[in-house]
C-alpha cells in the first residue's frame, strides 16, 4: 500500500486554496469592469435594449471567459512550479480548485456587479436604466478548469524527466546491490 507524503497533501491543499482565492479576486475584478446593459423602460417592469447596448451582454460573458482562462493558465503554471508536488495529486488539486474557483468567481463577480448596479426602478416609462451584467450561461464556467488541465498536460508532455522532475521515486536495487547494502550495514 502506498501512502502520500504529508507535504504533497499540504501542497495540494495550498494549490486548491490558492486557485480559489485567485478566482475570487478575478471575479471581483470582473464585477468592477464588466459593462452594464442599458434598457429603455417602455412599461412598468418591461424594458427594451437600446441600439448597441445588447452587445454589452456578450462583452460581459467574454470578459468572464477571458478572466477564467487567465486564472486557469496562471494557477496551472504556479502549481507546476512546486516541483515536489507534481503528479496526479497536484493535477486533482488544480482541477478541483478551478471548478470551485470558477463558481466562486461567478458568484463574487455577480455580487460585485449587483452592488455597482442595484435593481433599477422600472416603474417610470421612458427612463433609461442600467442593468447589472451576468455570466449569461453556466457553460462559461468550463473555461477555467479546461485550460488548467490542458496547460498541465502540455507542461507534463514537455517535461524531459520520466518522474516529472520530482526525484523522490524509490530506487530499485538488483540482487547484488541488495547483498552489498546488507553487508555494509
TrEMBL record:
InterPro entries: DUF2567
Protein name: DUF2567 domain-containing protein
Source species of the chain: Rhodococcus wratislaviensis
Keyword flag Translocase: no
Transmembrane residue ranges: 12-33, 60-82, 89-115, 135-158
Assigned keywords, A-Z: Membrane, Transmembrane, Transmembrane helix
Pfam families, per the entry: DUF2567
Domain of life of the native organism: Bacteria
Phosphoprotein among keywords: no
Amino acid at each position: 500500500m502506498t501512502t502520500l507524503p504529508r507535504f504533497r497533501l499540504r501542497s495540494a491543499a495550498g494549490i486548491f486554496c490558492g486557485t480559489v482565492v485567485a478566482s475570487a479576486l478575478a471575479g471581483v475584478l470582473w464585477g468592477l469592469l464588466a459593462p452594464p446593459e442599458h434598457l429603455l423602460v417602455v412599461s412598468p417592469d418591461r424594458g427594451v435594449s437600446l441600439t448597441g447596448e445588447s452587445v454589452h451582454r456578450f462583452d460581459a460573458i467574454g470578459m468572464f471567459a477571458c478572466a477564467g482562462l487567465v486564472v486557469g493558465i496562471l494557477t496551472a503554471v504556479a502549481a507546476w512550479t512546486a516541483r515536489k508536488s507534481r503528479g496526479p495529486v497536484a493535477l486533482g488539486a488544480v482541477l478541483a480548485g478551478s471548478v470551485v474557483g470558477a463558481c466562486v468567481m461567478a458568484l463574487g463577480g455577480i455580487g460585485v456587479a449587483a452592488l455597482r448596479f442595484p435593481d433599477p426602478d422600472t416603474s417610470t416609462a421612458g427612463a433609461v436604466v442600467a442593468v447589472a451584467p451576468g455570466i449569461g450561461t453556466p457553460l462559461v464556467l468550463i473555461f477555467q478548469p479546461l485550460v488548467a488541465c490542458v496547460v498541465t498536460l502540455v507542461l507534463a508532455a514537455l517535461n524531459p524527466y520520466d518522474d516529472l522532475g520530482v526525484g523522490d521515486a524509490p530506487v530499485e536495487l538488483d540482487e547484488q546491490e541488495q547483498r552489498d547494502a546488507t553487508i555494509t550495514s
